[in-house]
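debug: dumping io for the single-chain case to check the tokenizer round-trip. Nothing else runs in this session.
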Amino acid sequence: MNKSNKSINQPKECYFCVNGIKELDYKEIKVLQRFLSSYAKILPRKKTGVCSKHQRKLAQAVKRARIMALIPFTTR
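debug: decoded output
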């Protein structure tokens, strides 16, 4: 079986649920950048595998980090 076919059929597990992270902090830039594209856009759930509860918290944390100038709004 091809590896790409397996990843399509099997859903990804939520990074935050697996690692037991309850609260997302906007100051944890390394964690937030993992879920941003090269253009500093928030990646969708389907691509990252994050559950809906944590996707909402992630979006809020990224927006707060942008306001505090820890993450750029765009990279172009």
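debug: round-trip ok. Residues 20-76 form a domain with the 30s Ribosomal Protein S18 fold (CATH 4.10.640.10).
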